């Protein structure tokens, strides 16, 4: 079996997540080749053919053009599976490719059992095995689901590629996250508020516990999107990555994008009314309770110590 | 200006999910249903665009069983002008390609200037349908938008990337946008608007009219993940729970010493 791995490049750098595609191919026992719109100045450590298009010429983001570059390589390589990261680049490009190839397309693959991809359903409360009815398949891989056992090695055999395809969307540049605000990366204790706090006033309860534990408070995305907390407090893929000694998730369900930001915490406590909440998968202790009652009770007892 | 917004009805994610008899989807009895969260942002953006461009006309489309009409009514109460409802009891068996093909089939001769979808659905979460619709129609699409502006026939949008970085992108119209959380602040329908929505047109379209393709994939089986966490689950009186947790934190972490 042959796999074509679509590596990723941003702001002049190869993204490390590209190695997760290599790990996937290894787990599948597939031969592989790699595709990248990037540059020779930041090549992956990879033993195999790397089809390289110049990102200066074709832009780091240009769906229609990257699609054509990739389709040309697919026509040449005839891979059984085309592999992307389930990332802002991957989930944008993959459907364009699967449609053009008339191939089955499985998103956010977390595992592979007997060659059948497995994907999460309902915030990871269920898992689904998806059977392709087509010869070729396209998959996007959930971030972190596949990892190399050792550091990547090797140097690729380069094949440079070109196209005349025209784009429909113009990329006008990056906007960095606003600097300033809270720095959660140094906090030893983080108590985070999720949508389960119900209303902005209840953030005080969370802050109260954070203070009593001499830590900072964090938040899940809905709390930030509703402007109940500053973006610098957001933990997750599109916020901060933290690794405190203690992380207390209050009213947070445990969506993969949140877990990605906090699963390296040394000790995780979750407070949730839902015993089946996916946060339970990473929590050392899951307290099944209403945070509005439990958190103030806990704060009071901690203060009395 | 003609605008289309596509929405999906999904169960409340806090529900207890059971596997259905066929073992291929979740059991739908005893679930509370709501609008897919991402689609609330799509509807709000479509309504804002309609308000911005005078004389606009906004259709909301949804494929699903009879109960999805309740969710469509919410979109109508938020400001959509009409609903296009495709009755399909077996929507959960359709793959993203089939869903997108049905929507594209409906949209192909209607000259929509802008189409909005959510970036993904909360239950299946393929994140494919929006981009597929655009590709089927030959339109430019921008996925995962967290900022949207329309001026002189042109869209400027921001795509959200990982780590809080955004990409500024632009394209001409007609075009399709897939909407990410936080794009705007979805409005709550007011009581008068809920009343008005009841009188709005709700077209019914037969699946057979739109479905011209076959699925490329199928669910082999569905099951709850193996519990590998093995963490401690504490239940009971709040005061006792707090005492227990303090004891654990003292033993297992250096935090309370
Ligand atoms: C591309 C992308 C990037 C994303 N990036 C991030 C990110 O960086 N960070 C992030 O957090 N999310 C991110 N998300 C969103 C993520 O998918 C989830 O939607 C989000 O994490 C859910 O937040 P939540 O757990 O607070 O809310 P919900 O999922 O709504 O969960 C609320 C929880 O509170 C519990 N609850 C309710 N009431 C109570 C009560 N009284 N007491 C105790 N518990 C209660 C419920 O049982 C439930 O488990 C991203 C999504 C996408 C698609
Ligand atoms: N049954 C449906 N009816 C209408 N629109 C849908 C349906 N399913 C998905 N969509 C749209 O496609 C988006 C992405 O869905 P998905 O590809 O399933 O993650 C959703 O946010 C909706 O806007």
Main beta sheet strand tally, sense and closure of chain A: 7 strands, parallel
User: Could you spell the SSE succession of chain A in H and E letters?
Assistant: EEEHEEHHEHEEEEEEEEHEHEHEEH
Shape of chain A: elongated
Counted by DSSP, the helix tally of chain A is: 8
The name of the CATH architecture of the largest domain in chain A is 3-Layer(aba) Sandwich
What Rg of chain B is obtained from the alpha carbons, in whole angstroms? 21 Å
CATH superfamily of the largest domain in chain A: HUPs
How would you write the strand order of the largest sheet of chain A? 7-11-6-1-4-5-12
Mean pLDDT of chain A: 96
Number of strands of chain B: 13
- Order of strands across the main sheet of chain B: 9-8-7-10-6-1-4-5-11
Category from helices, strands and their pairing of chain A: alpha/beta
What coarse outline of chain B follows from CA principal-axis ratios?
globular
> How big a fraction of the residues of chain A is strand?
25-35%
Radius of gyration of chain A, taken over Cα atoms and rounded to an integer in Å: 22 Å
Counted by DSSP, the helix tally of chain B is 7
Which chains make the largest contact? A-B, 92 and 82 residues
Percent of residues in β-strands of chain B: 25-35%
Q: How does the helix and strand content of chain B classify structurally? A: alpha/beta
Q: How would you sum up this structure, described in words?
A:
The complex is a heterodimer of chains A (305) and B (257). Chain A has 305 residues and is of the alpha/beta class. Chain A contains 8 helices and 18 strands. Chain A has 2 domains: 2-160, HUPs (Rossmann fold, 3-Layer(aba) Sandwich), CATH 3.40.50; 184-303, TPP-binding domain (Rossmann fold). Chain A has helices at 18-28, 55-58, 63-77, 90-101, 203-212, 221-225, 256-262, 291-303; strands at 2-6, 9-10, 13-14, 31-38, 49-54, 81-85, 104-109, 111-113, 116-121, 126-132, 137-141, 157-160, 169-175, 189-193, 216-219, 246-250, 267-272, 285-288. The longest helix of chain A is centred in the first third of the chain and has 15 residues, at 63-77. The termini of chain A are far apart. The mean pLDDT of chain A is 96. Chain B has one domain: Rossmann fold. Chain B has 7 helices and 13 strands. Chain B has helices at 37-52, 68-78, 96-107, 129-137, 191-198, 207-210, 238-252; strands at residues 2-6, 9-11, 33-35, 57-64, 82-87, 114-118, 141-151, 154-160, 166-172, 175-179, 201-206, 217-223, 232-234. Chain B has a 9-stranded mixed β-sheet with strand order 9-8-7-10-6-1-4-5-11, with helices on both faces. A two-stranded antiparallel ribbon of chain B has the order 2-3. In chain B, helix 2 (68-78) links the parallel strand 4 (57-64) and strand 5 (82-87). Chain B is globular. Classes of the chains: A alpha/beta (305), B alpha/beta (257). At the A-B interface, helix 4, strand 7, strand 9, strand 10 and strand 13 of A face helix 4, strand 7, strand 8, strand 9 and strand 12 of B. Strand 18 (285-288) of chain A pairs parallel with strand 13 (232-234) of chain B, so a sheet runs across the interface. Adenosine monophosphate binds at residues 6-8, 36, 38-39, 42, 61-64, 91, 96, 99, 117-118, 120-121, 124-130 of chain B. Adenosine monophosphate is lined by residues 6-8, 36, 38-39, 42, 61-64, 91, 96, 99, 117-118, 120-121, 124-130 of chain B.
